[in-house]
Predict the 3D structure of the following.
Amino acid sequence: MSAVRTTCPYCGVGCGIVASPTAQRDVAIKGDTAHPANRGKLCSKGTHLGETVGLEGRLLHPMIGETRVTWDMALDDVAARLADTVADYGPDSVAFYVSGQLLTEDYYVANKLMKGFIGSGNIDTNSRLCMASAVAAHNRAFGEDLVPCTYADLDAAELIVLVGSNTAWCHPVIWQRIEAARERTGAKLVVIDPRRTETAERADLHVAIAPDGDVALFNALLAELAARGQLDTGYLAAHCEVPVGYIAGLDAAAHGIDPATFAALADLVAAHPRMVTMFSMGVNQSVCGTDKANAIINLHLATGRIGLPGAGPFSMTGQPNAMGGREVGGLANMLACHLGFAEDERAAVRRFWKAPNLCGGPGLKAVDMFRAVHDGRIRFLWVMATNPAVSMPDAAFVREALARCPNVVVSDVIADTDTSRFAHVRLPALAWGEKDGTVTNSERVISRQRPFFAPPGEARADWRTLCDVAARLGHGSAFAFASPAAVFREYAAMTALAAGRGKVLDLVAQASLTDAGYDALEPSRWGGEHPLRRRYPTPSGRARVVPVEPPPASTGLRLNTGRYRDQWHTMTRTGLSPRLAAHRREPLLEVSPGDAATMGLVDGGLGQVTTPAGAAVFRVAVHDGQAPGAAFAPMHWTDAMASSGRTGALVVAATDPHSGQPGFKNVGATLAPV
Ligand code: SF4
């Protein structure tokens, strides 16, 4: 087979890849020089994808319990469990928990089946753990979930501010682009992060805020710029709604960092109007993540630094297709295609889908969904392409919930995951290299993921499995898609509902793609380069400066969690690569030298972390990049690979009130030597 142009399955940078199969289940990987996201570059994870495509551990056949069954038997069983549960307990007794690993076509079909035909809003996604707060902030400020920047803005910026992001490790190709831009243009870099990460070490200025200190800092910065006469009062007056007296009431001294660092930051911001602020999990994964993102957006609106080359607030997504899931509406608090649950929006969606049972309103967001599974309100759960028994906060509670649930279906590529151990039915899915569809990256570029391996065993596409179940529920004609292209065409046509209501999301031109046109689809961005500047998709046409208050200061030791450079999520794929494993062979608990001394922890020894959710043991790494009073642990290790170092067991299930996103950072903890 000749080389195939596809996209990387890991992070939201969305790099293009040229995959050249060399033998059965062997492939050579190169960056795609024609893809706008990476222009040929790849990071270590993308480069070593070829080491992760073997069939070890794959789920190759449908299973009911430990018995291999035919697809017909498995689909009949899933449909019967779903139908019986709905008949006995109503549509809100069933739920889908899906994933930013799904392709847009999988997402679209899952969302349509649950919200239009089963009649519940109970479809949520592991993207809830990743960027839901950015979504909520965009909706509050812009009236639509819209990232107003592209990667080209990094090339044009004079100042790049990274907030809550170890970009060098977590979005490495963006990092390479930032480094190249700095070298070429002399752009300045500020990193705002409690940790002195590898990214922070390369910055012109590292602002080491307290965990969740972002709102205080950005509010103070806004006040300071106002005091220096740096606001764009014309832009504010013409294009923004600002609560009376809000900006004037902010305190330029209430930033919580040392005054010299704040002054240096304010000087840099004041001197460089072409400023991009990129934010990621340190902002989103917080019980006040939506307010943090709005504090960042407020600063850009008030200074008119938005919708221009080199200027804007830029949310980086974690997963390869979190954006595609957002676009089709695969979140419990959205209906479809950037539409909500207002009666006219529901009526339009009902007509478009010819939906017999359109849901009445939002469903349960991830944390609440698992609470409902635990207490028996949800009695059927279908988990697709994610491992919530490890990745959800309070993972022990989630395991209890899964153990209690009378109907757990898991669609996955891996036979034995921490979650699939609770499954009554396991359905084999396609992996990267077999999947065929589209994904959207952080800068709104839709790219094709193309197959280059034949499906192994009886694995099949998730969208097709969902359609087969829908047919067994009596909805065959609405789910008679012959191909992923047919799904994409229907989704693209549906965006007319959003565009007709003044939203920016508009793929109607792609609704007439032929199958050949879909196969050949080049990376294409919806919304253009700078969709926001003069008219916002709010009822008034103006952006909203949203008043935000800093949270109360935290006390005691705070645990932050995050990624390692060469691992991905729960390591089901990256764990297969020996070269990736060499970067960090085990999970390390990073603590500051002072805290280590106070708590009796030694470098290389063992330490136990205890939180209200649970306890876990790690090897200790004393690191002066950790601020006193804070510790850091990686998120990747699971029971399947280690008896210790399981971070998911430590995170409490507290959530942001606007987005429902859990706070994976800033968890109160105690440490002790083992
Ligand atoms: Fe893949 Fe992200 Fe690395 Fe690009 S930066 S190669 S998308 S993991």
